[in-house]
């Protein structure tokens, strides 16, 4: 007869494996489910289409090709897009002025998408790093007391102007990712009725590398640690979220997702508003690279990763796997 070193009074009457025996049983009791309506597909738009090997499957698309991609995504059931603009090098300047031009690349894409696909939710990333000649997210001070610094308050008006130009071109929601203090309030003041998805807890992460290659937004000098969050901090993330809500944010985002699931859970537990997570380029590219070498199955690894993000508390997930997820589901 078997003996057990601890109290096993529930066994053998209780056997949790019973509900794991078949796919059907496992599905019936599944606690976390992936719903395509909760996912947002990021897209990069430029003057021409440029294939990129750093972020497989995620090219920079011309406006015409963005329209074709949106048609395909809508056919799969994807309902929401996040647009990033990538201007030509000669269009970049110290302030990033092409970010708010009426004929800017994102503005042209928005007008085209709004006309052709009115049913889609169109959100835009509001930041200056893709548009500045130096690659930082705001007005740069090169001889500050700590070397290269971004001037916070001088940047706020430029971000607000960019947000207004996106809404005038057809954006449904604005997602400021710059991490300037007060930028949600500055945007809310000029756009009282537009949803703001605040990159509230955006960390200075190593997982943005492939994105920066596609968006051509790596800093030419210095780094972003002076305004993006220290990866060691959780309490500070909650303070950032609290401030963004007070300034008028509608959705709080944690970025990256997978290395910061504890932060995501802490935000979910603290706040009642919708919470988003950005499954960033490095997370996506790592799985792609491992799958290409036969180390793991991409579909299973992606589904496990996305489930983990939802399980940690995300209501919305921004992911480069959104299109693939539409096929898998």
The CATH class, by name, is Alpha Beta
> How much strand?
15-25%
Return the CATH architecture. Alpha-Beta Barrel
Q: Could you give the distance between the termini?
A: 47 Å
CATH-defined fold name: TIM Barrel
What is the ordering of alpha helices and beta strands? HEEHEHEEEHEHEHHEHEHHEH
**What level of helicity do the residues show?**
25-40%
Q: How would you describe what is shown here?
A:
This protein is of the alpha/beta class and 329 residues long. It has a single domain (34-328), classed as TIM Barrel. The protein has eleven helices and eleven strands. It has helices at residues 23-28, 63-76, 105-116, 152-169, 183-190, 209-215, 235-247, 261-270, 281-292, 298-312, 322-328; strands spanning 39-46, 60-61, 80-86, 121-126, 139-144, 147-151, 173-176, 197-202, 251-255, 275-279, 316-319. Strands 1, 2, 3, 4, 7, 8, 9, 10 and 11 form a nine-stranded parallel β-sheet that branches. A two-stranded antiparallel ribbon has the order 5-6. A hairpin with a 2-residue loop joins strand 5 (139-144) and strand 6. Helix 3 runs parallel beside helix 4 (152-169). The longest helix is centred in the middle third of the chain and has 18 residues, at 152-169. 43% of the residues are buried. The mean pLDDT is 94.
Short description:
With 329 residues, this protein is an alpha/beta fold. The chain has helices at residues 23-28, 63-76, 105-116, 152-169, 183-190, 209-215, 235-247, 261-270, 281-292, 298-312, 322-328; strands at residues 39-46, 60-61, 80-86, 121-126, 139-144, 147-151, 173-176, 197-202, 251-255, 275-279, 316-319.
């Amino acid at each position: 007869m078997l003996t057990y070193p601890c109290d096993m009074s529930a066994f053998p009457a209780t056997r949790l494996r019973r509900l794991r025996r078949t796919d059907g049983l496992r599905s019936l009791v599944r606690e976390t489910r992936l719903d395509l309506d909760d996912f947002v597909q990021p897209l990069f738009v430029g003057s021409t289409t440029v294939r990129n090997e750093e972020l497989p499957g995620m090219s920079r698309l011309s406006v015409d090709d963005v329209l074709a991609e949106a048609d395909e995504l809508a056919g799969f059931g994807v309902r929401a897009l996040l647009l990033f603009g990538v201007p030509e090098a000669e269009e970049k300047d110290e302030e990033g002025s092409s970010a708010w031009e009426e004929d800017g690349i994102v503005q042209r894409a928005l007008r085209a998408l709004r006309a052709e696909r009115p049913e889609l939710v169109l959100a835009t990333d509001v930041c200056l790093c893709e548009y500045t000649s130096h690659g930082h997210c705001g007005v740069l001070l090169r001889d500050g007391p700590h070397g290269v610094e971004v001037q916070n308050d001088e940047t706020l008006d430029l971000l607000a102007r960019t947000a207004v130009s996106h809404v005038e071109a057809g954006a449904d929601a604005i997602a400021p990712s710059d991490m300037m203090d007060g930028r949600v309030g500055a945007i809310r003041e000029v756009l009282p009725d537009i949803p703001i998805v605040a990159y509230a807890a955006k960390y200075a992460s190593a997982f943005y590398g492939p994105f920066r290659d596609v968006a051509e937004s790596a800093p030419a000098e210095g780094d972003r640690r002076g305004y993006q969050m220290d990866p060691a901090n959780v309490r500070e993330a909650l303070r950032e979220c609290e401030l963004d809500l007070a300034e008028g944010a509608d959705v709080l985002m944690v970025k990256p997702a997978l290395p910061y699931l504890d932060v995501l859970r802490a935000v979910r537990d603290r706040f009642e508003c919708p919470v988003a997570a950005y499954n960033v380029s490095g997370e996506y590219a790592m799985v792609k690279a491992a799958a290409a070498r036969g180390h793991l199955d991409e579909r299973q690894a992606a589904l496990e990763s996305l489930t983990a993000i939802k399980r940690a508390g995300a209501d919305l997930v921004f992911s480069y796997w959104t299109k693939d997820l539409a096929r898998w589901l």
